[in-house]
Design a protein that fits this description.
mainly alpha, two-stranded antiparallel ribbon, 4 strands, about 70% helix
């Protein structure tokens, strides 16, 4: 089943045009705002009022808004570039590949342990460092091991995709999703960590059970399921990954120490993007020094790693342009007011669930987590204020909608890359993943209702 969807930049530009048209057709209006106890600007309920006499935007605004949006988002964009460079330097040491390779080597003959350990590693990598594309080279390894143990390509892809999808959905400190959404929502970075960590366990167990049950079914009845999906029946050769050394352990130790320092700095010293970027850059320098990496090699890796996130930076700029156009045209609060009316009547529990479903639908069109945050959080944050939902819950609903549906939407480049390498057609993948997604949507909705009852902030 081939679905032709325009490039995300095309979709976002189309949304920019639509936003400009809305500024010509919708009444202009504003909510009153006030500072709450945490020093955050929040919308005052029932304070919406229409305004008149304000000039409408010109067509020229459609083009001037983009450079303004990049300037407005510069702290996030440069932070992302630094993280991309730092992760590339770490990857250049071979530490990431060595750890994954060693893990697969240790558990390659034990299918049940292989499934749970591999999924856990992929989940943790996505939950903390926002890893996704970095897993692609290990699809041949998983394919080889799974097929050698009488499992099929779907089981191999499921281990990776469900693993990283769960990691993104309940991410602890993912800098590309959680921290960006919290910054836009004016929520303290990494706050609410306890609930996300608690949710990781049930979501992971549900995902693991789905993959495990399918894999064991294939092992017991290889004729019932299409064992090799597409292509000739063969075991793919293992990729050549580096051996795990003490130097790789040192790199892992430095990375873990950096993550601990970030969490401590945020909670005790009120660090934010400047300090966090400094930690990641400092980490890359220490890795170079301790591993005695050639500085030129490190510089090239850093530049390439940052360059690979150029598209992410562009998506952030285009997405921010949409909100800027609505703000400049004085119609952003008009839209918020219209959306909030049915949600206010439904109550905070259903409002939180509605945000989750809205984000899940939007992820089909904007598969970039960072870009989606910039499109939706300017709307969801004031709606949360109006409906009695904390902004932390609005961020969690965004996380759920963006992260979990990465396992399903065909516009997600990582998903399509994984099943493409594995030779799995999308219709077969859809049949495998849809039952899990239904469970995830139900559990996610219940988790958001519970968050409202707990007063999660």
């Amino acid at each position: 089943m081939k679905i032709n969807v325009p490039h995300t930049l095309v979709l976002l530009f189309g949304m920019m045009v639509f936003a400009l048209l809305l500024t010509y057709t919708l009444p202009q209006g504003n909510f009153e705002t006030m500072l709450n106890a945490h020093g955050r600007n929040v919308v005052v309920p029932n304070s919406y009022h229409e305004i008149s006499g304000q000039a409408r935007l010109s067509i020229w605004s459609l083009f001037t808004v983009l450079p303004r949006a990049f300037a407005d988002s510069q702290d996030i964009i440069f932070f992302i570039f630094i993280i991309g460079g730092a992760l590339a330097v770490i990857k250049a040491t071979g530490a990431i590949d060595a750890f994954l390779g060693k893990m697969l080597e240790l558990f390659g003959s034990k299918p049940q342990i292989l499934i749970v350990i591999s999924m856990l590693v992929f989940s943790v990598g996505s939950s903390t460092l926002g890893m996704a594309e970095e897993f692609l080279p290990f699809i041949p390894v998983l394919l080889s091991l799974c097929m050698a143990m009488n499992m099929d390509a779907i089981a191999a892809a499921g281990i990776m995709v469900v693993g990283y999808g769960i990691g993104y959905g309940v991410a602890a400190i993912n800098p590309f999703t959680v921290m960006i959404a919290q910054e836009i929502a004016e929520v303290p970075p990494t706050s609410g960590l306890w609930y996300r960590l608690a949710l990781f366990v049930p979501f992971f167990l549900v995902g693991w059970h789905h993959v495990q049950r399918y894999a064991m079914k294939v092992r017991k009845n290889p004729g019932v399921v299409d064992r090799h999906t597409e292509g000739p029946e063969q075991v793919l050769p293992l990729v050549d990954y580096p051996r795990l050394t003490k130097l790789h352990l040192l790199v892992a130790g430095l990375t873990l120490a950096a993550l601990v320092l970030i969490i401590y700095g945020i909670s005790k010293w009120h660090w934010y993007l400047v300090e966090l970027g400094a930690v990641f850059f400092g980490l890359s320098v220490l890795v170079v020094l301790f591993t005695r990496m050639n500085p030129n090699t490190a510089a090239k890796a850093f530049g390439q790693g940052a360059g690979e996130l150029t598209m992410t930076a562009l998506l952030i700029g285009f997405a921010r342009s949409i909100a800027l156009l609505l703000e400049d045209g004085q119609v952003l609060h008009t839209i918020v007011h219209a959306l909030s009316i049915p949600l206010q009547k439904a109550g905070p529990e259903l409002a939180a669930v509605g945000m989750f479903w809205f984000q899940s639908l939007l992820n089909f069109f904007i598969p970039s987590g960072s870009g989606q945050a910039y499109v939706t959080m300017p709307l969801m944050s004031p709606i949360a204020d109006l409906t009695g939902v904390s902004r932390q819950i609005a961020v969690l609903a965004y996380q759920f909608g963006d992260g979990f549906t990465n396992m399903l939407v065909p516009t997600n480049a990582v998903l399509m890359g994984i099943i493409g390498i594995a030779g799995i057609s999308y219709d077969k993948w859809f049949k495998f993943i849809l039952p899990l997604m239904v469970k995830i949507w139900i559990i996610g909705s219940l988790a958001l209702v519970l968050a409202v009852w707990l007063g999660y902030k």
